[in-house]
């Protein structure tokens, strides 16, 4: 009996491993939510936990982390990008890029924008003439 009690002590005897107080705060941050039923809170926590497990398992199985026996951010962002079920997470789990690459992209966008403006002006001149 002592071993069973020891086995159930700590976080293992809790039905949900996510902190309910934090989930309550997140739920209350929605203007439509006025009060939160304890059962609704628990079920939301459990559903979130199961979803995170599913996302992690799927990403691990379909990612490159399996080779290293690890789950990486890249695996998660690849899942969000490639799998239709998880595409709603694409903005939350964007692909990582180097800052230098990002700055080059911004510079290119800026130049493209300036080029487009110049082209518009030329077209207007032609239309008038």
UniProtKB/TrEMBL annotation:
Pfam families xrefs: CBFD_NFYB_HMF (PF00808)
Compartment(s): Nucleus
One cellular component (GO) term of this entry: CHRAC
Key words of the record: Acetylation, Coiled coil, DNA-binding, Nucleotidyltransferase, Nucleus, Phosphoprotein, Transferase
Top-level division of the source organism's lineage: Eukaryota
InterPro entries, sorted: CBFA_NFYB_domain (IPR003958), Histone-fold (IPR009072), Transcr_DNA_Rep_Reg (IPR050568)
Record region (Disordered): 109-129
Composition bias, Acidic residues: 115-129
GO molecular function, one term: nucleotidyltransferase activity
CDD domains to which the protein is assigned, alphabetical: HFD_CHRAC1-like
Boundaries of every Transcription factor CBF/NF-Y/archaeal histone domain copy: 17-78
Function: Forms a complex with DNA polymerase epsilon subunit POLE3 and binds naked DNA, which is then incorporated into chromatin, aided by the nucleosome remodeling activity of ISWI/SNF2H and ACF1. Does not enhance nucleosome sliding activity of the ACF-5 ISWI chromatin remodeling complex.
Subunit structure: Heterodimer with POLE3; binds to DNA. Component of the CHRAC ISWI chromatin remodeling complex at least composed of SMARCA5/SNF2H, BAZ1A/ACF1, CHRAC1 and POLE3; the complex preferentially binds DNA through the CHRAC1-POLE3 heterodimer and possesses ATP-dependent nucleosome-remodeling activity. Within the complex, the heterodimer with POLE3 interacts with SMARCA5/SNF2H; the interaction is direct and enhances nucleosome sliding activity by the SMARCA5/SNF2H and BAZ1A/ACF1 interaction. Within the complex, the heterodimer with POLE3 interacts with BAZ1A/ACF1; the interactions are direct.
Listed name of the protein: Chromatin accessibility complex protein 1
Lineage summary: Eukaryota, Metazoa, Chordata, Craniata, Vertebrata
